[in-house]
Structure formats: C-alpha cells, structure tokens
Amino acid sequence: MWIPTEEEKIGVVICNFRSSTCQALVLEIGETVQILEKSEGWYRGFSTKKPSIKGIFPVSYVHLKKSTVTNRGLCETVVPLEDPIITETTSTLQEWGVLWKQLYVKHKVDLFHKLRHVMNELIDLRRQLIQGHLAQDQTREIKRHITVRLDWGNEHLGLDLVPRKEFEMVDQDQISISELHKLHISSRHCGQQSTTQGDSTRQRHGDGCRVPVSHHLFINLKSFTYNSISEDADVFFSLYDTREAKQISEKFMVKLNKNGGPKNPEKVDRLCALFTDLSSKDLKRDLYIVAHVIRTGRMLLNDSKKGPPHVQYRRPYGCAVLAMSDVFHTITDLKEEKDFVLKVYTCNNENEWHQIQENIIRKSNTKYSAPSTNYGLIISLQLLRGELEQIRRENQAVFNRALALTRKLGFPDVILPGDTRNDLYLTLERGEFERGGKSVQKNIEVTLYVLYADGDTLKDCISLGSGEPSSSEYRSFVLYHNNSPRWSEMVKLPIPIDRFRGSHLRFEFRHCSTKDKGEKKLFGFAFTPLMREDGTTLSDESHELYVYKCDENATFSNQGLYLSLPCCKEDFNSCPNLPANLPFQRSPKETFSVSTILCSTKLTQNVDLLALLNWKAHPDRVLDILGRLRQINGEEIVKFLRDVLDTLFCLLDDNTDKYGPLVFQSLVFIINLLRDSRFYHFRPVMDAYIQNHFAGALAYKELIRCLKWYMDRSAEVVRQDHIQEAMRALEYLFKFIVQSRILYSRATCGMEEEQFRASIQELFQSIRFVLSLDSRSSENLVFTQAALLNSFPDIFDELLQMFTVQEVAEYVRGTLGSMPSTVDIGQSMDVVKLQSIARTVESRLFFFPESRSILLPVVLHHIHLHLRQQRELLICSGILASIFAIIKTSSMESSVQEEVEMMVESLLDVLLQTLLSIMSKSHSVETSRGQRCPQCTAEITGEYVSCLLSLLQTMSELHFHHLLNNFHSKEELKEFLLKIFCVFRNLMKLNIFPRDWSVMRLLTSHIIVVTTQFLSPALHKNFSEADFDFKVWNSFFSLTVLYINQPSLQLEALGPAKRKKILDKHGDMRVMMAYELFSMWQKLGDNKPHFIPGMMGPFLGVTLVPQTEVRNIMIPIFHDMMDWEQRKNGNFKQVEAELMDKLDSMVSDGKGDDNHRELFSLLTMLFGPYPSLLEKIEQETWRETGISFVTSVTRLVERLLDYRDCMKGDEMENKKIGGSVNLMNFYKSEVNKEDMYIRYIHKLCDLHLQAEDFTEAAFTLLLYWELLQWEDRPLRDFLHYPCQSEWQRKENLSRKILHYFNKGKCWEYGISLCRELAFQYETLYDYQSLSWIRKMEAAYYDNIIEQQRIEPEFFRMGFYGRKFPFFLRNKEFVCRGYDYERLEDFQQRMLGEFPQAIAMQHPNQPDDTILQSDAQYLQIYAVTPVSDISDVPQLERVPERIKSFYRINNVSRFHYDRPFHKGPKDRENEFRSLWIERTTLILSRPLPGISRWAEVERREVMEVSPLENAIYVVENKTQELRTLISQYQHRQHHGNINPLSMCLNGVIDAAVNGGIARYQEAFFDKDYISSHPEDTERITHLKDLMQEQVHILGVGLAVHEKLVHPEMRPLHKKLVDQFHMMRTGLHHYMVGSQQGVPGVDRFGAAGCPGVNSPRGILSSHSHMSPESVRLIHRHSPLSLQGSIRHSSSSLSSHTSSEAGGNLVLMNDGMMGEHSEDALHMQPSPSSSSLSSIRSNSSQIINSAPSSARGSPSLPDKAKHNREVMILLPSHRERTSNMFYNMAENGQNNHMQRALLQQISPCKPCADPHMNLPEKVFPNTPGSWSLDGENREPVSYMPTSTGGVIMPPVPPRSFPPGHFLMHCDAFHHQNSDPPPALPIRSLRKISGEEGEGKLRTLTDRFQTSHVPQMENSPHLKLLLDSVKHSLPPSLPFSVWLSDHVTKQ
Questions:
Q1: Which of 670, 824, 1277, 1690 is a good FRET partner for 934, with 20 to 30 A between their CA atoms?
Q2: Which residues contact 405 (CB under 8 A, 6 or more apart)?
Q3: What element of type H or E holds 1066?
Q4: Sign of CA dihedral 93, 96, 98, 104
C-alpha cells in the first residue's frame, strides 16, 4: 500500500537505476528525486529533471536529504535543508556540464580545459562544505573560493551575474532595487568580498582610516651544501635595506653540524621562520635577504697549528644575498612557494667582513671569492598577507613546524593594543685596542653579560636570533690579528620589564691566543646601564664606551666598584669630581662602540612623557609639560594611553580653572592622534577606557564649556586650526561628556539634570550658529564647518543614551535645517553637507520610525534642491538608496505608507527630470566626443534608475491614484506622462544594465509593465475623444513596442530551466504588455487613423517576436489598420510601403523567424471569418487587394529571412553576396521600390569591397549609375551621399566605378566609361577634367599592354535539397574563381561555406529524391567559357593579351564534357567507341557582373564523335608540347628539365593510354576507313595533326638533348629510340592507309597533302628534294571559338612586334647540320591536356612590351650556316589573310614563299573536348589583302622530304628592302623600328663580280621552263645562287616576284 511520505521528501540518486519493472523511472547517479509515496522498499516520485514523469524506484538507490515542505499536498514545494551555496553550486555545475561539452565541439580548447579545472575545484570545495568538519573561518574562506569560481565561470560562459551578500544569493524580494543594484556592482568587481565590522567602521570615519595591510615572508632552509668547512656553522638570515645600508629585521638563526644538517636532530625539516609585519612600503624598498655564515672551530680553517683542537672560536666564513625584487618577479601569486639557491661567497679580507653583503650586492668581486657550482643554501620562500592571527589560522600546518617568528626592528605600521613587547637590540659596532707590547695584533673576542643591580647575571636574556633559545652570555666572533675589529653583529636582549631598571651590560675583551694552550686572556672591559637616572632608557643611537684595563685575575663580584665609574663621555661630563684612586684604570686610547634600538610598549625614552606621568613631583612645571605634549611621539603616547588620560583628568579635577583649557587641548590632540591609521587599532582601547576606567564625573561641565567657547569664537578668530581640531574630536568629546554625566548622575541620583539639558541645548545652538555663518569669504571658516559636519553624525548614538529618539531627532533636524541652501554655499561645502546628510540617513537614529518622520522632510528638501540644480548627483543617489533600503526593511510598518507618499510628492517628478537630463547628456557626449563627462557615466545613470524603480516599486495603487489626481491641469499630467514614458523607453534603448544582469533587467521590466497598467487608465480618461493628444498616445505605443521587443524578455533564447524560473516569477511580461497595447488600441476609436501607417512598422516589430500569443493579439490590429486605410484611401499603398520598409530594417537587424512566413498567410484568413467588416466596401476588391498585399509581403519575408541567415557573422562572403543579390532583384523586379533597391546596391558593393572583388563592386555601382541621368535635378542626401545635383552624383559615382575597375584590372570596361565622362566634360567645356579623364584613358591603354592579368577558372555549382536558402535551393550557378584557384581549392572553399552539404561525386543531374530531400547536396565541376564572337577583336594583328581578355569576360555561355561509350564498348580499342557529351550552360547574365556567381538559365546538350574527340586530344597535346618547348628555349624554367622530360616521355612512350598509336589503330584501319566514308576529311586532319606532333617531338628532343643533365643521358637515348620507332610506325600507317583515303595526291605516300587538303597551306606542283626549304609557320587563333586559352607571354605577342612580317626561309640542309641551333624561338605556352574533364590552370597575361623583354638571338654560327626554323602551330581551319598570290589567275604557282604573319598567338584549349565545328569562325577577308576575297582553306602537313610550301602572295610589290609590315600602331609607341626576328645573315657578293654573276643567274632562270623543272634537283641550287648574289638593296622576294611574273 502506498503511503504519502512525511519526512522523506527529497533525495539524491547514488547509483544508476535501470529496470524492466512497470512504472519504474530511469535514474542516473547524481540526479535529484522528489519523493511522493513509499511502499515496502520502494519510493514513488519524480526526477527534478523531468517532473512530469512519475514512477517508482528502490529505497536503497537514494540518499535522503533533510528538507522543508511548503503547501503540502499536490502542489507542495520541497526545498533541501542545506547551505544555499551548496545548492547553487550543484545547479551551476549541472548547467555548466552541458555548456562545457559544447566548448569542445566549438573548438574552444583553452576555455574547455580551464573550465574543467574550475569544475573539479568546485566539486572538491563542495565536498568539504558538505562534510562539515571545518572551522567557521575555514568555512567562510571556502565559500569565498566557491563564489569567486562560480562568478568566473558564469562570466566566461556568458551566463547571468548572481548578486550575492555574504557569499549567498540574495532574495530580490527582500531588498530594495537600489541595494540590489549595488550588490550587482560589488558582485561584478570582486565576487562579493564580505565586509567586516571594522571595515564598515573605517568607511564611516572617512579618510585617514584605511588600515595598512601587513605582509609576511616565510622562509624555509632546505639544505646547505658545502665541501670545505667540515665544522659546525651558524647561519643568520635577515632582511637588509641596501639603500639605507641597515638591517630592518631580527635575525633568524640556524645551527648546522659539519655535515650541513641541523645540529639538533629534532629540527629536521623544521628550519623555517616567518619575517612578520612587513608593510607595503617595506616591500617597495631595495630589500635583500642576507645570510651570514659563522663557523665554529679552529682559528684558521686550513691550519691545524693555530690553536689546539679542543678550543673553539666563532669565525666569519661567508655570506649570501638574494634580491627581493627577484623573489617578487618569480612569486606571482600569494601563498605560492618557490625554491631559490643562494651562493655563499667568502670574504677575501676579514677587515671587510662588516660590509661583505654590500660588496656582494655591489658586485665588488675583488673583495670576495665565488664558490663552486655545487655550493650554497637552498631555501624556499612564500609571501603571505593579512593579520598574523589570520595567517596562523589559515596555515596551521606551517605554524606547527616550530616556526620561528622573526620580527621587524621597531614597531610595525599598525600597533595592536595587546601587542606587549620589550626588546632592546644591541649591535657591536667596532673597537679600537692597543697592541699591548705584542709583535702581532690581537685576536679579540667580546663577551656580553646582562647583570641586575644585585650583581646577578640575568638568565636567558641574550638572543643571537630567532629559531634558537636565548642564553645568558654572548661571545662575538673573532677577527684574526685585528686590533681595530668591526663586527656589526646584532643581538636581541629580551629583558623582563621588572628587571630593566637597575640592570646594566658588561662587555669583557679577551685576546684569543693561538698557541698550544689556546688561552683566552682578559685584558679589558666596558659597561653601560640600561636606564638613566631620570627614568629614560638608553637612547636609540651609537654609544662610544670607555674601555677599562683589567687582567685575568680581576674580580667583578662587586659591580659597584665599576658602576660608580663613568661609562662614556657623557657620563664623565656629568661626574666632574671623580676620586683619584679608581679601582679600574681607563685606557684612554681604547674605545668600544655599540648601538641600541629599543622596541618597548612599557618603557619610554621621552623625558616629557615621564614628567607628565609624574606631574605631582613637579606641580609647578605642569603648564609647561602640558604645552609640550604635542611634541611627544605618537607611539609613546598610545603605549601609555590609559596613564596619560588618567593624568589629564586628574589635573582637570585638581584645578579646573587653571588646567581646564590645556587639558581640553591635550585631550583633543590625543583623540585626533587615534585618527591616524597607525594608531587606529587603539580606538577600542579608548572606548574600553571610557566605559570601564574613566572616572571624571565632573569633567562634562568643563568639556561642554570649552567646546561651546571654541564654537562661539569661530566667527571672530582668523586662525581656526585649534577649533577645527576640536570639531574633528567631537565624537569622543561627546563620549566623555555623556559618560561623565552618567557617572555624575549615578553618584548624585540625577541631580542637575535640567542644567545639563540646558547646557546641551546651548551647545546645539552654538553648533547651529557655526553652520549658519556665511563661509564664502573665509576659507578657514569653510574648513571649520566641514570638520563639524563630518563629525556631527557620530554623536547621535551618544545623545541617544541621554535623550529620547524624538528629542535627538529634533536636535538633528534643527541642525540640518540651519545649513544654508545650495545656492548660498560653495561646491566643496555642498559635498560635505550631503555627506553629513548621508551619514545621518545611515545612522541608527534614522531607523526609528519616530525619528524618520521628523528627519525625512528636511532630508528630502535638500535632495530636491540638489536634483533641481543637477549638483552632486552621485551623493544624492547614495542617500536615496539608503532611504529606500530602510523603507524596504520597514515595509510592514504603517508609517511607511505616509513616507512613500511624501517621497512621491517630493521626488518622483524631479527624479524623472534628472534621469532625462543624464541620459540626454550621456547620449550627446558619447556621439560627439566618444567620452562621457563625470556626471553622465553609466554608474550615475544606473544609480538613479534603481532609485526610480525603488520608488515605483514601493508605490501602491493608492499612491498612483493620489499622484494622478493631484495634477492641477491636464497639461501637467501630459508632461508627467511624457516624461515617464520617455524614461521607460530610454531604459530599454540605452541598455542601462549590462547583459548579464538578468535579475535587474527582469525586475525593471516587471515594474515598467505594472506602472504602465496603473497609468494607462489616466491616459484613456484624459486624452481620448475630444481631448485626444497624439503625442501622449504615440509615446505610449512606442513604449509598448520597445518593451515587447526587449532582448531580455525573449524567453525562447533561454534554457528550459531559466525560462521556467522566469515564468514562475514574473510570467510572460510580453503578453501582459501586448494585452495592454491591444486594449488601448481598441479604446482609440475614431482616432486610429492618426497612427496609420505610422505605427505599422512598430507594430510589425511586435509580430516579429517569436511568441504565438503576442502574434495572435496583433493580427486583429493589423486587420483594423488595413480596414481603416482602405476606408480612407481605397488601397493599401501607404501601409504596404511602410510595412516593407520596416520589415526590411527589422529582419536585417536579426528579428523574425521561419514561423513569420506563415504569420502573414494568416491574414488572408481574416477576410473570410469577418463578413461584417467586409460588407462596408466591395467585397471582391477588398479580398483581392488584401490577399495580393499579404502574398507580396510573405514573399518579401522569405527573402528577408534568407538574407538575414546569410548575413550572420560566421557566414562566408559568397552566401552574403548571394542573399543580397536575391533581395536586391526582388525590390527591383517585383515590388519596384527604388530606394530599397539602391540601398541594397550599396550593401552589395560593400560586401564586394570587403572581399576585394573590385570588378564586381564596379558592376554593382553601375546599377545605380544607370538609374541616374546627366541632369541638374537636385537630390536629397541619401546613404553616404550629400545633398547635390544628379549630374554631380553621377560624376562622383563614375569616378568611383573607374577606381574599382582599375583595381580589378578590367580597364576595357573603364575605357567606355572614360569616354562617357569625356563627352560630358567636353560638352561643358571642362577642359581640366577632360584632360584628366583622357590621361586616365591613356593610362588604361598602357595598363592593358604592360600589366599582368590572371585568367580565372570557372566552376559550375548545383545546390540541391530543401535545406539550402531560398535563393540557392535546387538551382545551378557558374562561379568565376579567384586568382590561382583550382578546382580542388574551390571545392574545399564551398564545402567550408556549407559544412552540412554532401558533395556529389558525379556530374549527372539529380533526381527528385535529392531535390525534395531535407538535406544539402553540392555538385561542383569545372566549365569552360565560350566567348561571343562579336566581342573578340577580329584583326589578326591584335596581340593575344588583348584578345584573351575578351574570351573570358562578358561570357554567358559555358560548357563541360562527359565521356561515355555509345553502344558496346570496343574491348580491343576503347577509343573507337568513346563519345563525349558536351553540355552548354547559358547564364541569366554574363560574367563578370554584380556577383562572382551567375544563375544558369538553360542548358544545351550535344554529342562529339570518337574521331572528333581524337582530333581534339591530339591537337591539344601538340599545343602543350609547343608551349613547353618554347618555354625551355627561352630559359623560363631555370634549368629544371624534369617537366619537359616527363611530357616527352608521356607522349613518346605512352604507357597509360597508348598514345597516338591507339588512335592509329582505331581510325587508320582500312576497315574503319571503308565503313566511315563520311570521316575522310577528319581522318586526313588527324593524320596531319599526328605528323605535326611527330615533328614537334623532334624539335623537343633537340631541345632536350641540349639541356639534359649528363646523368639523364640514358633516358634521352631511350626517348630518341622510342621516337624513331614512333615515327616509323606512323609512316607505316600513312603508307598503309593511303589507298583508302580518296583525294590524296602524288605527295600522299610521302605524307604531303594535296591542294584540296583542309590545312589551308598552298603546296608546290613539283616534288622537292630532302634539302628543300621547309617552313613551319604560325596561324591565327581566331578560328577557335574562344576555347583555346593561353598566356600572352607567347611567341605571337613577341613576334607580333618583332617579326613584323619578315620573310623567313628555312633550309633543311642547314637544319640537319645544326638542328639544335634552330630552337631559339618563342611559341605560345598552353596547358592543353588529354583529360576530358579537367580544366586548364589559370594563365598569366603578360602585357610587357617586346622591347622590354628583348629579342632572342642566334649564335653567329647559325647566322652564317642556315635560315632559322621557327616552331609554330600549323595553320589550319581558316584562310590565311596575309599572303602573296604568285599567279595572276589565283592558281598555285610552281614556287611559293611563306611570309611570317603579324598575328597573335594560339590560345591553349581550356577544354579539350570542344568539337571542331564550334571552333571554326566564318572566313573573313584579309585585313590588308589587295583583292579582299576569301581564299579556300587548304591543308598543310610537313613531310619527310620537305618542300617550299607558301601561302599565295597578293599581286603587289614592295619597295626594295622592305621586309617589315607595320600592322598596328599600338605595337610601337616610339618611332624606333621594331627589332626583327633572328634571321640568318645572307651572304652577299660584292663588286662587279657579283653583278655579273647575278645577271647570268637571272638569265638562266628566265630562260628556263619552270613547269618542266618541277622535279629538277637543280632548282634549289639555282635559287640559292640567286639569293646569295642579290645586293642588300634588292630583297629576294621582290626579285622572285618580278621574274616569275615576267616568265
């Protein structure tokens, strides 16, 4: 049977519980469970983590905890009975545990590890608290550590700050808001250090009362390693001030044996001391730890003859020092213990021993010797802070180790009353002794005894240092052979106080012989008494004592014999008459000096103090003694405080009239002495004296009389120092007065009570008189009044002992009322007055309701005056905070309601005004100068906000009712409402409280909503209907909107626990305010149109709050606004415009969520449920307009939310840009909001500039540029544009766009804009600007030619899945990559931007499953741009660097290829069936543009046959080879030949895909040729390409042979052999397949194409010999449709300016002889590849002019041997438009010559799979052909036999010697002729012989029948002879043209 539990209510799970039992809970260790019922070993209850799930669990699995239960029953609340800080620690650790794991996920490793360490510490500290075995102080310290760690963790994790008091969380309901604000500040700064009573007392007494903090140095000697002493040693540690060259502490003494261990075995590990009472000032000194080592043994360490072994001497050995500055640098934390090593240095000369530490510190290394490395003291040091008793409690383990307390010399900064001390420190300074007839100096040892008056030696009164027991005698160390020893050794004499008087010191001097016996012979002595005859002790100075002679037989049993002698010079002067026969004779030449320091709380060295205490012995000197009391040291007075006070009051009783004023002055002096921080601890001694020992029953009369006399004279006396001192002593004077009156009343049974009251009344009248005086003209009087006001609140407690609360309150009220108003006094007195009022409010008097009702009006009066004048705001806020704290604690009393009413009337309005003033100043100063004035800081604002909130919190409904009814007019009420609404709005806008002050923020919100509920009825009642006031209502609505949107109220962002806690405490305050808003809106009635559409935006902000109930409240308001707008204007235009503007600004600021998309769709439903509303207008119009409006807004919300998600701080630039473009296009195309469109243009431009996409930024600004006209229409200021004309704005925009185009290196786009600007400037005759723009245009042309540009790659991206943003979802884009960005880099970048995306590994189009999935799929591959032919310059003379720009810019078509096998795959040769699927993407806009991305509008797909693919692959590989060989010819690879080797090896010995042999097998087979007759031309084309490739390989091998390293020669030989095999194989296929290729002429067998070959090169009719001239020429790239791309650092850009159309003949015979010399040429580099899917790498467009690069040159041998063979791409697929036609009829002649054409280079293919038709341009006439007709393209294929193959030459002649064709002016900016290509110099035959031979050769040529000589081997010889016989003035081409024509 289940029984409800009574005691067992809460428990902690101690073991994981899993059970299959029905209704069993699943519990984990550490969970807290609440128990409801029990039954036979089982409990029933729930886990506090999941209170909704109830179940059962075993009793044994739970540890019960004591608890308290409230509201027993179903809704009972159970709170564990444990320390609140334990509960907080438990809940905090649970909260941190979740966040800690998230830190690991977010890679915040440093904070992750720190937090783990802190959590472990908290768990350990919590365990100690739970165990409960700690002392009270230890518990307090652990709580402090816990709270510090909790606050640290909360701050670093971004959690709320917890306000604490005494380490525990405060209950916000129990304290005022002002006090809560202060607790927040204190918790934020220091984790809430608790304040002791002494601290609060010190604060009460103002300045001078801060008690210095003591520091203590713990030192522990761990070991002393030495290897050279082998004797016992004493080590003395002390603190030494090197600046003052003196010791500041006692010595800590350690006795060690000869092995370095402690001499006393019990002290192992206990050689430690604590140097106490070091002040902060001491730590700033130049301190050193000094260790002196004194050995005990033989006289000389290494000489065994000096003295017998049984005689022991104390001898100096060494010294070590350690700078405290090094210690402070090493020890960074208090209580941190660190080890240090001190090297012990030995003294080179014992005469310097007294200053060895100085020599070591000054590093005078000639005076000491350094030790060995393993020799020194090892100590550990620790710095402690605080009172010694506190240190003892906190470090009991240390104090239990026989810790030696080593005190500071003299008193510490703080002298404690119970600190009894009586120590005399004696230092043996030096001595001067005679040699005494000895040949060597003496070894002097000094023995010290302390003797009493009776001659007995005082036992244990000499201490060499702490750590060792005191002894009865002291023997100094001995300095070897030194008659003037300097010891500087200090000893402490702790002589009992009762033995001090009459005691004296005796010093005996002995010579220590080092002979066999080792005798110590006495030869003299000295002495000094400890106290003089006048009762004063030995003064703190050096004393030079007389030395008296004596011998070993002298007896000192009768000390009177020598005590009657003078001990020093001063003593001798005071005893002039000495007897002649003295028992001891003084040695006049010998002296002995000692110095003493007395540190005693019982003895004094002051004569005046002794005279005062013994005044009865000299009554006639009393007045003089009292007058000198001020000159006595304060330490001496406080030591004898009680005796001095007794003496003073005895004098007062003895003769009041005579001694009264002086005793009063002395008493004032002593009281003020206790204000010093050094003697502050003696105030309790004074209090104890007054309570327990003071006996002056009549003293009060004289004290009152003197005090009144002082005050009455304050108006007359100029010097008022004594009056001011009396005012400062007011507190203790009143204590003496009251205690004296109590004693008198007690003794006389209350006699003279009336007289006493009258005297007090008169005294207060004098006080009021002093305060009422006008002090503006007297600075002294100001100080007097200030001293009086400072002391005045301290007398309240004393007066309460004698008077009732009401009487004292009346005295105080009269006094405070006597103070002049703020206007009549200066600012300094203002502060003092307010401080006095503040302390009055904090006093015990103000806590009584009876006195508070009397004092509160006058306090409020002064505060009101100050607030009105905005003076001393911080002090006033403190006073108010104290008042509110008192009222909060007294809230149960009936009088409080009246006090609150009084405060509301006096303060509420002025508080509001003050806050408005502070906030406005704060805002204006921040915006103008970035700094705040002192009175506008956040501290002051927070103080006054808390005061206002405290006042509003204390106000009840009755108070609000009285407040609102007491206004005399509606204007006053209106002003008040506007003020309070404005203050509330500022509270939410200015973020007065930090983000983590959650308690304060929520409490503020609660008070605001409650106050608003009280004020809104007054608003409706007074300002509705006819009295409607827009300003007040608008202020109210603005307040409600701001309130609901507060970040601190958005509970959805909080964790479940915190959300529940807030809802339980305050509820959802947003809903409360929303209902208030709705209620007031409904009460507006017909005044609603005043707020339409103005409030549309603010109300929209409310709907963006993610709270369903708030949104549901707002929907009717929107419907209402639409209804009113429709009534008024018949449409929603204004509402729509306002709504969209606000939506944009709000969502851009991060508001709204996905649910908001559905919110506006709910509005469409409103038109159905409310037909009554729709009947007022035409139903159809209303419905359609409303639905259209809502639909448009919903679409905007979708885009805005996408934009907001993209603009989050951690998103990448591409997503931000994409979101901006999407939204910008919406505003332009769908809603036509030009201002928003322009706004987003600039936002997009800013994003581009951040990403350094300057080209895109320029295109973006062009959108705005296009909207502007060249007109003078004025424009308003907009964004960052000032007020200006439209023309000016467009001009400024143009210049900015030009700047961005220039930075983006898109000068071609800038040129057109330059021309536009130039036209405008020219129209306006603005020649200065025109000159500037023309220069810029010229500079752009220069940049195009000279500067480098990187060709980007392009990538296609597909975004599939519903998880992508709206503007990306299931769409394709093409992206323009960054410079040097390859496909792999781009893929990684995109996956980084979309980390949740899944990369698709295939290029296939996705199916619907992927498109509709709730995931992200990303598909990326490279694409190739397809340029529009109309954009590419058509002239062949245009350099490649210019044309290449047009191929990759303004491109809207891209393609990519996918290989596949159509039909069955050919297993023997897969190339026969390998087809290519080519997809072309057409973009919605060209690239580059306003974004690096452009959306794909549509796609086209076509297929490429295997043969076309083979042609394309071979062509690209040939181009790649040509490029690479050209680079090596011009030494572009700096000696690294590996790329060339690999490329040649890959083609010649193709191991992967078989190379061209596989194509030969596939397509040159007879069966294939016969079965594919339609491919005849393509097969021929492929053969041409292969022949060309073979030839290029030959050239490449020649280059390779020249550059190859000797070690790589075997590879080269292998390549050559493989090449020959390859060429032979190709020749075999050529011969074997010629039968199957129709159209092959007689050159077919040799591989020479006929006339109709598609290669475009004319061939000869006659066969040529192998020695014939071969020409490999260049071709124009214009036949390729933008797909062939390469760098313009290519041959054509070089030769276009250098060759200039020179005629070049190439002699094969000469080439055969020196083939390697024929390779100095510059072909264009390309990056074509056999790969069918990879894109080319980016190419650099080198625009440097040819003259800058220099012309390549040939060796002289080549120039004299042969013509240069230039490596060129073969001219195919188009007609050469620069040629000579050698026949008039246009047919091919017998001999032709090639002209080197002035053209741009080939562009390497970006994609190797573009089909051939796409690459062919329409044939165009030559730019300078005379006939202008198109020529039929013919093929060219280099043959093995060679031949002169030339293009037809136009029928024109050139001037003699004209070989250069200057095609375009931009190649040569200078007048110098361009450098020619390297060409062999023609040998000339000079003189008459040459002319005759030329005539003979010409005749032979003209008479010969050329057609019959077609196959003649003599043709070449004849032409050679002619060529070499021509004079320089006659070019061979001219000669040939003329004579062929004649023939």
A1: 824
A2: 273, 274, 276, 466
A3: helix 1056-1066
A4: negative
Coil vs helix vs strand at 1771: coil
What six digits make up the tokens of 479? 């300095």
DSSP assignment string, 28-71: -TT-EEEEEEEETTEEEEEETTEEEEEEEEEGGGEEEE-EEEES
CA-to-CA separations, 578 to 546, 554, 575, in angstroms, rounded: 15, 21, 7
Q: How many residues does the chain have?
A: 1943
Both tokens of 1524, joined, read: 């690479």
pLDDT attached to residue 169:
79
Tokens of 991: 């973020």
User: Distances in Å between the alpha carbon of 1605 and those of 438, 782, 1549, 1600, 1601?
Assistant: 97, 101, 20, 9, 9
The conformational region for residue 1639 under phi > 0 = left, psi -120 to 50 = alpha, else beta, is left
φ, ψ dihedrals at 1447, nearest 5°: -75, -25
Q: Render pLDDT for 311-363 as a digit per residue (tens, 0 to 9).
A: 788 999 999 999 998 888 888 776 678 889 999 999 988 889 999 999 999 99
Q: What is the pLDDT of residues 1710-1737, one digit of tens each?
A: 333 333 333 333 333 333 333 333 333 3
Q: Are 1580 and 1649 in contact (CB under 8 A)?
A: yes
DSSP letters spanning 1681-1705: -S-B---SSSHHHHHHHHTTT-B--
| Per-residue pLDDT reduced to its tens digit, 890-914 | 766 777 888 888 889 988 998 999 8
**Cβ contact 1040:1105 at 8 Å:** no
Residue of 379, 250, 260, 407 lying closest to 320 (CA atoms): 379
DSSP for 537-557, please give it.
BPPSSEEEEEEEE--TT---S
Q: What pLDDT digit, counting tens, does each position of 650-703 carry?
A: 887 777 777 778 888 888 888 888 888 777 777 888 888 888 888 888 888 888
b/e code 318-334 from CB counts within 10 Å (16+ = b):
bbbbbebeebeeebeee
180-235 per-position pLDDT tens digit: 888 888 876 654 343 333 333 333 333 344 556 788 999 999 888 766 678 889 99
H or E segment and range at residue 1424: strand 1417-1426
Longest dimension (CA), the chain: 171
Nearest-5° Cα angle at 1486, 1480 to 1492:
100
As a whole number of angstroms, the distance between CA 906 and CA 894 comes to 20
To the nearest 10 degrees (0 to 180), the angle between helices 721-728 and 779-791 is 10
Q: Look at residues 1265, 1285, 1287, 1263 and name the one whose alpha carbon lies nearest to residue 1275.
A: 1285
Instruction: Using alpha carbons only, give the angle 1709, 1710, 1715 rounded to the nearest 5 degrees.
Output: 110
CA distance 560 to 569: 19
pLDDT in tens, 1456-1502: 888 888 888 887 788 888 899 889 999 988 999 988 889 999 999 98
| Tokens matching residue 495 | 């002589």
* Amino acid, single-letter form, for residue 309: P
pLDDT top residue among 665 and 1418: 1418
Specify whether the CB–CB gap between 1185 and 1126 falls below 8 A: yes
* Inter-residue contact 1070 to 1053 (CB < 8 Å): no
The answer to whether 598 and 538 have CB atoms below 8 angstroms apart is: yes
β-bridge pairing 272-278 and 404-406: parallel
Which is nearest to 4 in space by CA: 74, 64, 84, 71?
A: 74
CA dist 574 and 592 (Å) reads 20
Confidence band for 1376, pLDDT divided at 50, 70 and 90:
very high
Contacts of 1562 (CB under 8 A, 6+ apart): 1466, 1469, 1471, 1472, 1506, 1510, 1568
For residue 114, give both structure tokens. 């720190």
